[in-house]
What does this fold into?
Amino acid sequence: METPAFLPADRLQALLELLTDDGYRCVGPRIRDGAVLYQTLDDADQLPRGVQVQQSPGRYRLEQTDSPRRFAWANGPQALKPLTFAPHEELWVGELQADGSLIFHDAVRQAEPVAVIGVRACDLAALSLQEQHFLQAAPDPYFRERRRQLLLIAVHCTHPSDTCFCAHTGDGPEARTGFDLSLYETDTGYFVTAGSPAGERLLARLPLEPGDAGRFDTACDEVHAAAARQTRDLPTGNLQADLFARLDHPRWQEVAERCLSCGNCTQVCPTCFCHSEQEVPDISGTRSSHQRQWDSCFSPGHSYIHGITLRQDTASRYRQWLTHKFGSWHSQYGRSGCVGCGRCIAWCPVGIDPTEELHAICTEVKAT
Amino acid sequence: MNTVNPYLPMEAEVVERIQETPTIVTLRLRLTCADARHRFYCAPGQFNMLYLHGVGEVPISIKSGPQHFLDQTLLLDHTIRAVGRVTRALVRLQPGDRLGVRGPYGRGWPLDKAHGKDVHIITGGLGCAPAVSVVHELMRQRSQYGHISVVQGVKHCDDLIWREQYEHWAKQPDTQVLLAADQPDARWRWHTGMVTGLLDQLTLAPHRSLAMLCGPEPMMRASAERLIELGLSPDNIWLSMERNMQCAVGHCGHCQFGADFVCKDGPVFNYPAVRELLGTRGF
Amino acid sequence: MKAPDLRPSIAVHKFSSCDGCQLAFLNLGEDLLALTQRVRIRHFLEAGLDDPDAEVDIAFVEGSLSTPDEIARIRRVRASARYLVSIGACATAGGLQALRNLDDTHDAWRDAIYASPEFIATLAHARPIADEVRVDFELWGCPINSRQLLAAVSALLAGVPPIDQRDKVCLECKRTQQVCVMVTEGKPCLGPVTRTGCGALCPAFGRDCYGCYGPADNPNTASLARRFAGLGLLPDAIARRFLMINSAAPAFHEAGLIARSQGESQGESDE
Amino acid sequence: MSDTRRIRIDVPALTRVEGEGSLKLRIEEGRIEQLQLSIFEPPRYFEKFLEGRSWREVPDIVARICGICPVAYQMSAVQALEQAFGVTPSPWVQRMRRLFYCGEWLQSHALHIHLLALPDYLGFDSAIAMAQDYPEAVQRGLRLQALGNDLIRLFGGRSVHPVGARVGGFHHAPAADRVAALIPRLEAARQDAFELTQWCAGLPMPEDSETFISVALRHPDDYALCSGRLMSSSGLSLSADEWDQHFREFHAPHSTALWALLDEQPYLVGPLARLNLNSDHLPPPVADSLARTGIRFPSSNMFHSMLARALEIELALHDALALCREYHLPERSHEPVTPKAGVGYGMTEAPRGLLWHRYETDDDGCIRSARIVPPTSQNQARIEQNLAASLKRFGLEHDDDALRLHCEKVIRNYDPCISCATHFLTLDVTR
Ligand SMILES: Cc1cc2nc3c(=O)[nH]c(=O)nc-3n(C[C@H](O)[C@H](O)[C@H](O)COP(=O)(O)OP(=O)(O)OC[C@H]3O[C@@H](n4cnc5c(N)ncnc54)[C@H](O)[C@@H]3O)c2cc1C
Ligand code: SF4
Ligand code: SF4
Ligand code: SF4
It folds into this structure.
């Protein structure tokens, strides 16, 4: 690759200003409540300088270092998901007229332009999976509008956590597609590449300096080293076939002893798309809002058909999660539903690690 | 608008209400917007989402066959059993009341594959609702198909709806109608017991037959397996599934059955596609 | 002659409680006036309406049953209501005062507080409404909020039963994009076994859920109790987590007693 | 009307009070033979639940004593535990507690005036009926109440049993933009509140003067809410730990309730008592509003309680506005707490009056014993005293309905919160 141009660290603010001038609300990683969260960003100084993240099953802790870097953290609980697939939203409104007729109003509105800085490769991969899900046959207008207004600035990851395994799924730590701009972070600034025409145009307006090839190589090496440091992986082979061949494996019951069926794993997963719909009528009885909200295969309503919840017990709910995410996703979207972000491992309150469960279920030698 | 927002219902009016049994009601609906009526076309086996203001939406099969769509009046028949929140309220609607309709959704019965074949329609309980439309269609194009059998089982003989309809079909050439009730009364002149008990009575030529099944899953599974024993190829068995549905367009994830979304990959499935998981607890 | 009042009628009854759940009506703001357009409130002492035996379509019942008089009264309420909704933790699970059920401490407590305990006709146990009469629907929470109440009232006015919300607080916690306090700070959060409905308030305020909405569907209290132990909580502290606002709800009751008995057996082995 | 008439008035269920109580009045030969306010709220034994509980749980437990003034219970409790542990809350925390508390005064007073008390003066039996003829007045009340609730939500997430308070401060500091968003609403509400005061002052009130002792907190710098010393109009000045030297609670033989007496005298707590002792601390705009009414405090007319509430609404809005305007995110929202064995006292001004707590803790900060004296049981003796005197002045010759309404009006002046009182009150005392 030709050596990309360089944006000195103290000029990051210029990028924010360009984006603001173009009408974007900037969103970037900020520290709140002990985690890295995507929040509105007014100033580059609000970025978490030197903050790193320690993650392990059921545990997430920030760590302050004296590194000058602002993207030295591994991901927080949120991916891009809430920005395109809102956790809770109105889909339409039904209004009962005085003559008994019904009028339905669309709730699709023009989305605000949002530029996200510091996007991770795993989350870009997850976004593209969600695009497949929501934008195919019957495009979801809410998702589509927000996606259309999204500008994505990736930062290649150099500080994966203990829970990360994007190198194994092939989705990171280097972002390869799906971004408008991408940054390779060094202690003194960023090597900037464009990934879309919008990114090209933006890049042309940045106060860049020529990049130094040697230092760029070092930056790339750091990303590769980050990949090498990851230790978790998924069982090899055809997980879909292997999982569906082991629906009666005793391990499902064992994990169910620990699993709280709280759904946290699915809520933090950047690819999970399940949602439920509900009706919220106003007290006058004339106006009723039809809404949707994130749901989970761990909830009782997910598998309810009149009179029975098909998945009553935790074992069957946990099995649904794993057989779908790592199994039937292949048939549905041509690949696994997992991008290796590790969130489900860190944010499970009891620290269940699906990679470990998958190994236990799929790689054991089957007794004959 | 519908093409823009796939979740937005269209307004419809109840034009007729038929009380089939104490808990089963057929609502005949007319979309109030002429344009929507012109655009609406559906195949037997597809379903609509019916919306009751302030209460919610549920998937209900479209019972009317395509002949209803040829004229401008387009009437959509839905036969609904009152079981829960939404359905109990839906069956209370009266002519003139308004509701929301979106659809049609899903893949219907494989009429193209049935062409020139004997067709056996085996249903249990209200499983007959999604199947009636296909019988209508077969009858409308009677010459295109071989032998037709209609097999329906109910729990109690009073649950049998559309008795005259069955009697009418029974009189058609090369058509067999078999009915079964678990709990018959003195006047019941059909089979007593489960539907599966009737399958041996089918005029079955396995190599040129296609079966369409709809009803409770254990009944469909038992019937399919019996048909296979009787020589029918699994490929020629089709069945209609039900799962929780929130969006009906493959987004909400609730209707997944293994790798399939019942709303868009079904509700009608080829038996081999679901054979493995059908009856597996938790799917 | 006046036109007959066709509005459905409701009553709000109070049993042993703090009045907090009835406030879900009085805190409706403008919606309170809208509600009175649609329903006729026949009995609601706090709002000035006094007709306890009026036949009503819906009776809302706050509070637990803790005196012989209350037992008699709830039967009358049941007899005069077509549909009975119990509101709040006291009514659905006995509430905080059900703590006195735990060790049959009631008599001792009464005697400690009152100079003439023999005059005090209270029952040894504070019990949920459904222990005594048929309840058609329960709204959980301590306190319930106006959103839940409106949803239930709207459903009933539409002629359908309200939706029973049994998901876990965690789902709502994530939907509102809170950061998990258990994972980031090791706080013993009851969210994973508690019913949603509150809007995941505690995590939003940086603290651990204390279970005021009662047990959720399929609560794995055993696993959570082990997790709490892993976070450093002693058995007695784990027991107190479960035995608080909803101590008499079976799932929490059982989990609390198990933790307690572990504390006792540990205590013994320490000696 | 003849003097020999025998009147028996049973108001089996008092309406428009929080919680449930009843009144028995027997008049024979023109004399009050029996006058009994009884409260049939069953006891809930809060002091006993608290034993063995951790200090962390106390704010959540005491909130449940009363759904209408949970903030008051939480504030008295945390104050007491902080004293026991030797924790001094930061100035930020102290200011924010006042803000939090202002929310409760606002919602509770607005609720009381509009939904509970006003119907008496305008001749309705409920606010719902009143709303037909006085829609603006009722909506104004609901707006003020909603604003109070939102202030509580800022710190507690919900207005009933808020979850934000803890020993040492708050679990969480609200975001600055959420505080800022309340400022325009608070500003707008001041006009509402001013009009409310003037309106209340204009309502026809009985001239009903009698002497009584007022008890309230008093602070040298401001209108005391959660700090200061306990003062009485009889000249007392006490700290919380001196309570037992002058106050006594007893199980009165002729009554169904525990009463509290100050040096063996009935006394008044609540808005009128506070204003009687603290009117010099009203901030200028509120003092101006009071001056325009032409009514002077201290007042010996119990019916001025409603006006006192309206003025306290103005005060709460005034203070809340100032506190919101100067709001900033603190470095930390609570002081670190190291529990230890000790004894601590707390007293704050609940909307209905002084609320006194005492806790004894063990080394781990678990509660060894708890005592809570809520305002309603303090007012209990005073209510009966007031009823007897006021009925005589009103004239016992009035017909039953008029007597009943008069009694209810008198009782409602105290905004008695029977739920709070109940852990002291007996049920079904028979003799
Ligand atoms: C493709 C398809 C076609 C159907 N055709 C018919 C028909 O022609 N006639 C008929 O009477 N019924 C039909 N059903 C079943 C019907 O949808 C359910 O009976 C109905 O959803 C129950 O709703 P409820 O609110 O009354 O029940 P509740 O038990 O109160 O259910 C609550 C909610 O759960 C969901 N739910 C519950 N049961 C089902 C179910 N079986 N399928 C999907 N979602 C469910 C719905 O969202 C429902 O509103 C069909 C279902 C599907 C999937
Ligand atoms: S399954 Fe787990 S690791 Fe994979 S994408 Fe989802 S949250 Fe990340
Ligand atoms: S795996 Fe963990 S996060 Fe997922 S549902 Fe189970 S306990 Fe919750
Ligand atoms: S904070 Fe509590 S409610 Fe929220 S996700 Fe964590 S465990 Fe669940």
Summary: Chain A has two domains: 5-228, 240-367. Chain A is about 35% helix and 25% strand.
